[in-house]
Amino acid sequence: MNDLAPIGGGCRTAPVLKQRGQREVFCGLTGIIWLHRKMQDAFFLVVGSRTCAHLLQSAAGVMIFAEPRFGTAILEEQDLAGMKDAHAELDREVARLLARRPDIRQLFLVGSCPSEVIKIDLARAAERLSQLHAPHVRVLNYSGSGIETTFTEGEDACLASMVPVLKDTTARELLLVGALPDVVEDQMLSLLGQMGIDNIRLLPARRIDGTTAVGPNTVFALTQPFLGETHAALERRGARHIAAPFPFGEEGTTLWLQAVATECGVSADTFAAVTDAPRARARKAIAQASEHLNGKSVFFFPDSQLEIPLARFLTRECGMTAIEVGSPYIHDALHGPDLDLLPANDRWGPQISEGQDVDLQLDRARAARPDLTVCGLGLANPLEAEGLTTKWAIELVFTPVHFYEQAGDLAGLFSRPVRRKSLLKLEAAE
């Protein structure tokens, strides 16, 4: 499709600035906030401290009297000092939880910084508890520790922990991987269903799905760009990845759907009949929302691993210039198709960076003075105080932004702070 061809050279082979130093990241436990809403018969039990419990309560906005699908098995001083058998304590907590909540079908033991520091073997605990409570409850474990991870890696670790226990299959099936808001997931399935694609499985499913299986005839598409470990786990099971740009904006959505449709043998006429109308709506919505973005510059600090596909969206669909695109990790199999489309220019870049030395990156941002800086919560207020306009990266994870019907909303998330800055300048001038 000629209108989706790259503009100039892409950034896939561009030099990558790799830095390792002090980082500004959010805790990996945060992934529980959207996963516990998505997986309706699962429970996430964090083995951690009171700080972990307070983080989850405050980040999720859950009232104290609510009954969410997550909790914390709090490590007390005696646990940390090795004066108690942590495994026996954990067994009792799990037994109490399952007795009170018989609706739980899948229990995740989630490691935290404290549990990893004192080296509680949650993998062994999950295996023991799974045998004890089978077949009604499946117990898995993963790490949500913020010591070495970004906050979106919590979902990646969770989904990767599920892959080894999926059933084997030789059936030809499409597996769609990544947690999406229900309304967005329904839109995705509707578009694919209209194309005649119906042999679809989801990971994660809204409820534990015994029919979800994987094998050598499974093909899978990722809906989130931070699922590197899940991608590797699925390939180890023999599944094959459908590489495509991620479904952000009209262009990314079309290319993602096109890759899936081509894999599934959908004709060009059928594809056009299904996508032409929503494509037109998305283009119109983006044009209206991005009026204040055209000609502006953007600088991405590494935070969510959404940075590369979002930079592609902003530069190609909203008329922005990317000065630097930083990402915690760059995975060629995942990010390569978006990097192919990200416009490169010998004079201004953009600079592609992986990892972070936050002080050095702050120096580059201050020198560049971009019109919009996308960064974590910890950097936003200080940069605003210095006169830089910022966008919280975490909001891009919590807000529905995938596929056609959300394309205008995605552009609006970036245009609002730029527009607000322009209005404040006008008021000051008056």
Automatic annotation (TrEMBL):
Cofactor(s) required, per the database record: [4Fe-4S] cluster
Annotated cofactor note: Binds 1 [4Fe-4S] cluster per heterodimer. The cluster is bound at the heterodimer interface by residues from both subunits.
GO MF: 4 iron, 4 sulfur cluster binding; ATP binding; metal ion binding; oxidoreductase activity, acting on iron-sulfur proteins as donors; oxidoreductase activity, acting on the CH-CH group of donors, iron-sulfur protein as acceptor
Reactions that this protein is recorded to catalyse: chlorophyllide a + oxidized 2[4Fe-4S]-[ferredoxin] + 2 ADP + 2 phosphate = protochlorophyllide a + reduced 2[4Fe-4S]-[ferredoxin] + 2 ATP + 2 H2O
Residue ranges the record marks as coiled coil: none
SUPFAM superfamilies: Helical backbone' metal receptor (SSF53807)
InterPro entries found in the cross-reference section: LIPOR_BchN/ChlN, Nase/OxRdtase_comp1, Protochl_reductN
Role of this protein: Component of the dark-operative protochlorophyllide reductase (DPOR) that uses Mg-ATP and reduced ferredoxin to reduce ring D of protochlorophyllide (Pchlide) to form chlorophyllide a (Chlide). This reaction is light-independent. The NB-protein (BchN-BchB) is the catalytic component of the complex.
GO biological process: light-independent bacteriochlorophyll biosynthetic process; photosynthesis, dark reaction
Broad enzyme group: oxidoreductase
Subunit structure: Protochlorophyllide reductase is composed of three subunits; BchL, BchN and BchB. Forms a heterotetramer of two BchB and two BchN subunits.
NCBIfam families (alphabetical): DPOR_bchN, PRK02842.1
Family the UniProt entry places it in: Belongs to the BchN/ChlN family.
Pfam assignment, any one: Oxidored_nitro
Residues annotated as binding [4Fe-4S] cluster: C27, C52, C113
Signal peptide annotation: none
Domain Nitrogenase/oxidoreductase component stretches: 27-386
Pathway: Porphyrin-containing compound metabolism; bacteriochlorophyll biosynthesis (light-independent)
Name of the protein in its database record: Light-independent protochlorophyllide reductase subunit N
This enzyme's EC code(s): 1.3.7.7
Keywords: 4Fe-4S, ATP-binding, Bacteriochlorophyll biosynthesis, Chlorophyll biosynthesis, Iron, Iron-sulfur, Metal-binding, Nucleotide-binding, Oxidoreductase, Photosynthesis
